[in-house]
Amino acid sequence: MIDLSILPVYLTAVVALLLLPGPDMLLIASSSMSYGRRVGLFASLGNATSGIILTLLAAIGVSTLIAMSPLALKALHVLGGAYLLKMGWDCLRAEASAAPELDAGVTMARTFYQRALISNLLNPKALVFFVMFLPQFVSTNIDASSGEQMLALGLLLNVLGLTFNLVLVALVGSLGRSLLSNQRFRTYQHKFMGAIFILLALWMLSGFTL
């Protein structure tokens, strides 16, 4: 359901986008460094899940309707920013780990899966990206509807994005293992993540205007 003649151009564009630093990369890298590879893996899966949901919404036209509504976009800006601010505040209030755990447990991994999922779904810039980017590669030269093509293109984008993020987790997680054995780092790891979430909230709210 993808026009093979435009596939090389699409793949080039996707790779270029993946290499650009963004809030998703920052969240996944910082969570891997602060809490280990397991948490980074689940954050990557949460990000991929949100990407699939946004792809489905774009394919059936819901994303376009939301993107065309200034009120809906403003609501997403406020909700997304408020959610990230709350996560940042919770991290700043959290106590340091007492033991040098090299990988966080299931609870922490599940928490970061949910955080990555929800923060990306509430990010209006991510929604607008799917609405604006995928249609550029819809072709009239194949026997497939625009929705089917956008679905295929979006799924390919998410597979490549997940692969890239898993490599990032493996690389940054190696640094995290050495840091997590350091008591001084564990004292400040929650504050570090809190600062990251607050920065992401400010980034998201920067696009909000009354």
Automatic annotation (TrEMBL):
Membrane-spanning residues: 6-27, 117-138, 150-172, 192-209
Cellular component, GO annotation: plasma membrane
Cellular localization per UniProt: Cell membrane
Pfam families hit by this protein: LysE (PF01810)
GO MF annotation list: amino acid transmembrane transporter activity
InterPro entries: LeuE-type (IPR001123)
Annotated membrane topology: Multi-pass membrane protein
Keywords: Cell membrane, Membrane, Transmembrane, Transmembrane helix
Name assigned to this protein: Putative amino acid efflux protein
